[in-house]
Design goal:
Strand order of the largest sheet: 1-2
Radius of gyration: 15 Å
Structural class: alpha+beta
Order of helices and strands: EHEEEH
Strand content: 25-35%
Number of strands: 4
Largest sheet: 2 strands, antiparallel
Number of helices: 2
Length: 72
């Protein structure tokens, strides 16, 4: 069985303008306090109070992505 997967990145840092998978931190403290995950993961996008949010799910488990969105 063969399958293709794409690595995705997830972080709270903003992307550099015009650069994919490059992120910007205003200073070292912000960089240090901003976790970055790079993995084969599932992403769910939603808006809460008009602001975009993303739920990132890594690995297999007994979760329900739609329930997670509804609970958020």
């Amino acid at each position: 069985m063969c399958w293709a997967a794409t690595l995705e990145s997830a972080t709270g840092l903003p992307e550099c303008r015009g650069k994919r998978i490059r992120f910007r931190a205003e200073n070292f403290d912000i960089l240090y306090d901003s976790p970055v995950e790079v993995s084969i993961s599932r992403h769910s996008h939603l808006k809460l109070r008009g602001l975009p949010h993303r739920i990132v799910i890594d690995g297999e488990g007994n979760y329900d992505p739609e329930k997670m969105r509804a609970d958020a």
